[in-house]
TrEMBL record:
Protein name: Uncharacterized protein
The organism's taxonomic lineage, starting at the top: unclassified sequences, metagenomes, ecological metagenomes
PROSITE patterns: TPR, TPR_REGION
Transmembrane segments: 7-26
InterPro entries given in the database record: CellSynth/LPSAsmb/PSIAsmb (IPR051012), TPR-like_helical_dom_sf (IPR011990), TPR_rpt (IPR019734)
Keyword Transmembrane: yes
Length: 189
């Protein structure tokens, strides 16, 4: 019986690989892409095994969703991948990228607390994420939480000492705080 199951699984995996590798590059419009992704998702769950081929298939599906800005679906597949391999660097980076992207969108819409949450999620996923720390610093600065902004910029610089924007923003913020302290001291005299 087990031998028969192996014979059934191998063709299903081969079909999945062919669909992903051959069909996706030729898909021209969004409707075709969506129907292709739905087809792959509709494959029987028993055809999905936790071997290298499945992981690579899930990664490709997550990448397609990410490319189409369908972030919730991409997050679902990255998280599914991370359940089988919690240290998969590509999946962790993909997930962190999405959280940063969502943070940008929320920041543009002035949803600063939502942006903070997304940047923190990116840091939870990839703890040395320079861009997440930099953006976290920007949001803290906008909120007037200067000490937290300074700490975030310093952490970004710790991981990338050449990050020009973090260096510049840190310098601007430190000088601003000094000038505020100086003007406060003059008012007290």
């Amino acid at each position: 019986m087990k031998q028969k199951l192996k014979i059934v699984f191998l063709p299903l995996i081969a079909i999945l690989a062919i669909v992903i590798l051959v069909y996706f590059p030729t898909v021209k419009n969004k409707d075709q892409k969506k129907s292709s992704l739905r087809y792959i998702e509709s494959l029987p769950e028993q055809s999905v095994r936790t071997d290298f081929h499945d992981v690579s298939g899930y990664y490709q599906i997550a990448q397609k969703y990410q490319k189409n800005a369908q972030y919730n679906d991409a997050i679902f597949y990255y998280q599914k991948l991370l359940k089988t391999n919690p240290h998969d660097k590509k999946s962790l980076l993909g997930l962190a990228f999405i959280y940063i992207k969502q943070g940008y969108v929320k920041e543009e819409k002035e949803d600063l607390s939502g942006a903070l949450g997304d940047y923190r999620k990116a840091i939870e996923v990839v703890s040395d994420n320079v861009e997440a720390y930099y953006n976290l610093g920007n949001v803290y600065a906008k909120l007037g939480r200067f000490q937290e902004a300074i700490k975030s910029y310093q952490t970004a610089i710790k991981y990338d000492p050449t990050h020009e924007n973090a260096l510049a923003n840190l310098d601007i913020l430190v000088n601003y705080i000094k000038s505020m302290d100086k003007s406060g001291q003059e008012e007290n005299k």
